[in-house]
């Protein structure tokens, strides 16, 4: 029985959703296990996010709201300034400085923030470990993390795992902010994200455009759903085919689909068994080079790709009467549609009607991981019910963003829809659903 | 006994769905998306219902008829939603088939359609278990337990986990029956699903009487087994029919 299309559709979406889910789950577990006797939770920490106002449980609601809004405003302004500095540095080609700065900050975050979280875990569960071993383990963890995130040659799984753990560490710290400030901050960041990615002259938009016009990697911490083929082959043609996400500094917000630059088309003109491989050289897709390979070569190269890349990244070759059709398994209808609209060459030879597409990966900024998890972690401090509601809201928001991504074909902010839905569902659940469900369930009424 | 008890209750309610998820759903990304979206639909329906009933809460726990109205209205609302879900699914199926034609892959098989229905039902069931059982389990991880007056034989968490298990089964498989009934235009199937749902909901009213859970829960499980058997017979009939068509 031939495999049905159910197995191929939606793979990319799941590829992004599963790490986000893992990140949120671990943050919730951490918040739960540490909140009971956490040394920091009693004394609120002073960070950039609550410079102006330190929340006090005895303050009135108005005071809290005002303070929280001020905090959020200051934090967003800080982030905007940092992002602009980043863009300016990138514009003047201080790439090495940026790279080293990112290495340092990742080292710092993993080492100190991660270290303090490990310490509190050790205290909480009274794990017997001596300080020298602990220090050695932490140092190794940190160094391997920095290496795997910023240099090639490491397995992509390790890289992804470290990205997720970096997100977890930062998010766990953010959950230590006071309640009102957290909500104000989340909403403000979602708004900022919207402006920074979509408005003309927004810093993230500028950064994405700069990076794509230079044909370089984005200078930011970005989670890649899947390795791009060009990297596997060790060649640096990392063409950002479709930018669908914004970017920023380490608390960044980005989501982008990347076509790896090998767009395999087939044109079975006039019944010849000729298959042309065209590679899309750059973003605009203007200089495409017609390699004009014969079909056996194409089959060959596709097979080589499949052996190179990981299991999710394979393709099949179906032989038909007249032509070789190279079908990539990972197309979803939406992606396919996008490919049809976007790649001009395909439009040019739509007389063949055969499906084609390069393998693509979706990139999600680490900032999205962090703030999704902050929302869920904050919800975990109230009740489990709000956690589930927020999780579902965020995931569906992410799904909507991914769908929009394939419709709009440009960098999109991943925070606004998810955070809005998350906040709405949190308050609806807390105010409406909880009394209803608790009222019926404690009477053992269910339906 | 604390963390272990909590995990035990959770697995009691969600264990079968978990194994179903791992063995059938998790291999196909599209089915995972279906589960998630149907869970979201159920959550939204619960929020809307609680919004409507918010004004009347808290209900007095001495009279039973307000609860009967509540359960009736909720079941009616959710069955209406199931119809809507079916309409959306129908359009999705057309899109999927069109897409399959374009990439020259086979169209959806009968088993695929059933799996989508199963995933939709699992989403509903999991949402039920999560919101009615799992979210109240937090105290079970602590050192104490909790008994309700009307059912003093078992801890509250155990009762709610058992009820949730029955409802997960009913929800999961009634979606398969319903989708099949709509597709075939079979009136019996179409009526069977809401009536099972309503009957199961009404059986929880028995818990209201003191010691009623001794009778109510076995009855509830009877409904679950009934749904399961009905679904199994229907699926076998469809599959053999399908095979015969394929042979001829």
Summary of the model, kept short:
Chain A: One of its GO terms (cellular component) is Golgi-associated vesicle. Chain A is mainly alpha-helical and 447 residues long. Chain A contains 15 helices and eight strands.
Structure description:
Chain A is 58% helix and 7% strand. Chain A has helices at residues 11-35, 39-42, 61-91, 95-124, 131-150, 156-174, 179-198, 203-213, 229-232, 295-308, 333-342, 344-348, 366-380, 384-408, 415-442; strands spanning 222-224, 255-259, 263-264, 277-280, 288-290, 315-319, 324-328, 360-365. By secondary structure, chain A is mostly helical. Chain A has a domain at 5-37 and 48-228 and 360-443. Chain A has 15 helices and eight strands. The radius of gyration of chain A is 24 Å and the shape is globular. Chain A has a three-stranded antiparallel beta sheet. Chain B is an all-alpha fold. Chain B has one domain (3-54, 63-242). In chain B, 77% of the residues lie in helices and 0% in strands. Chain B has seven helices and no strands. In chain B, helix 2 (29-53) packs antiparallel against helix 3 (65-102) and helix 6 packs antiparallel against helix 7. Chain B starts with a helix and ends with a helix. The relative contact order of chain B is 0.13. The model of chain B has no long low-confidence stretch (mean pLDDT 86). Chains A and B meet through helix 1, helix 14 and helix 15 of A and helix 2, helix 3, helix 4, helix 5 and helix 6 of B.
